[in-house]
Amino acid sequence: MSVRTRFAPSPTGYLHIGGARTALFNYLFARHHNGQYLLRIEDTDKQRSTPEAVRQILESLDWLGLGPDEPPVFQSAREARHAEVARELLARGRAYLAFDTPEELAAMREQAMKEGRPPRYDGRWRDRDPAEAPPGRTPAIRLKAPRPEDGRGEIVVKDLVQGEVRVAHAELDDLIILRSDGTPTYLHAVVVDDHDMAITHVIRGDDHLTNTFRQCMIYDAMGWHRPHFAHIPLIHGADGAKLSKRHGAVGALEFREQGFLPEAVCNYLLRLGWGHGDEEIVPRDRAIALFDLKDVGRAASRMDYAKLTHLNGVYLRQADDDRLAEEVLERLAKHGIDFGTIGGDRVRALMPELKARAKTLEELAGTAAFAAIEGPPPMDAKSAALLTPEAKARLADLAQFLTDAPWERLELERWLRDYAEVKGLKLGAVAQPLRVALTGSTQSPPIDAVLAALGRTEAVDRILAAAEE
RNA sequence: GUCCCCAUCGUCUAGAGGCCUAGGACACCAGCCUUUCACGUUGGUAACACGGGUUCGAAUCCCGUUGGGGACGCCA
């Protein structure tokens, strides 16, 4: 039977980076086994689910290159089926009608907590005749949890990541599978959908580990085969607490905004909890070839933005120049920086040098701005301070001589070295004032590359402007 | 409170009883390279939570302690 996995987010907000990793692992596992990777939107909570969240989840997955192999399944569209299974369980005597009110249940929980007992449903309607129900109450359907004679049974799950995990039947209570309003509960809907979608491997966050035992009860009651389960550890913030906004970016699309490349984010997420020897750079194809659930760690890991940033730099340097140029120009436009066709060409021309010096697209856009615009670049204080009277005189001199210089990068470099030698100067004494004049910054790509990319007219204009300031 | 899971440098990890004087990566520090910055490169600081077993031998197996996390809804 071919492997089928699914990612099942609930559309109550943006796609969390932890969810993105769950999706990635589901994707990689399916691809590794030549199986299918599906998406199910768990929108049975009508109060909190929004179409906007659905849209954002799809966009996030698309950006990460984790789009599903089949159209997404919307859980809300399958409520009739969920109810049908619940009624079947009822008909088979594996479930029963429970007429409790929410208030009664709350009181029951409170009482149990007060007495130091675990808050579980006591099964008061399990063997009671529905005829005894108080008038006007609509019942929920509860599943009958196993109650072995000796009271010592247990449910065993052989989790592909966590290993063998067991929970005593005594820990389980009769869970609601169909609410009194006829809608399914999450635990029930998940089981029915995973079964109907022929999911073979359920890979999800380990916050679902204890839910698994409740779900197993439903599989068993229906006589369905349980899928394999793999519960992967959660991602925490740098302080070890649950990852939240105060830790920094957590939404997948926030990473895009901040200038991270999707392939870098995926690589980072993969290495968080999964490893293959000392390999750090694991592109998609390699990840598919290597991925195995047995190599997934069992401990929660912490989000490290510094390492993500480093990885992003690695991927940035490998990325295609035109792609990066497009991204950068888009960002410049968004920041209200004016540039024309020529500016775009200059950014493209300088991209090989630019990308070696940036770790994110946002940073790249910042360092590319001087090349995109027309005229003298804005100058920071540190750069302006470099424009001493001597430096300005030097620039004026350079502007004059550059008029006749050969305009090609390697030739320019030689020309600059000759110039410095003739004038008895260190190359740095020539390059730094030039850099400041041309880029408005003390840091930039090699000055010969900058000159070549700007073109003679623009370069000389900027040098003259700085000399006359 | 009850149940479940987890535990190697600050962080991510390698490690399946001897290959471990514990390896790699990020971050940090110092040097080299150099027209600035970055890249690259060389070196450095830095960890098996603790206590008991098992064994000739334990980071690796077992038990306990401590610490962290998760779950206990007519939420998902």
Automatic annotation (TrEMBL):
Where the record places motif 'KMSKS' region is 242-246
Q: Which keywords does UniProt give here?
A: Aminoacyl-tRNA synthetase, ATP-binding, Cytoplasm, Ligase, Nucleotide-binding, Protein biosynthesis
Q: Where does the record place the region Disordered? A: 114-147
Domain (Glutamyl/glutaminyl-tRNA synthetase class Ib catalytic): residue spans on this chain: 3-309
InterPro entries to which the protein is assigned, alphabetical = aa-tRNA-synth_I_cd-bd, aa-tRNA-synth_I_codon-bd_sub2, aa-tRNA-synth_I_CS, aa_tRNA-synth_I_cd-bd_sf, Glu-tRNA-ligase_bac/mito, Glu/Gln-tRNA-synth, Glu/Gln-tRNA-synth_Ib_cat-dom, GluQ/Sye
Localization (cell): Cytoplasm
A Gene Ontology molecular-function term? zinc ion binding
Q: Which domain of life is it from?
A: Bacteria
* Family in the record: Belongs to the class-I aminoacyl-tRNA synthetase family. Glutamate--tRNA ligase type 1 subfamily.
The subunit field of the Swiss-Prot or TrEMBL record says:
Monomer.
The protein, known as: Glutamate--tRNA ligase
Q: Upper taxonomic classification of the species?
A: Bacteria, Pseudomonadati, Pseudomonadota, Alphaproteobacteria, Acetobacterales
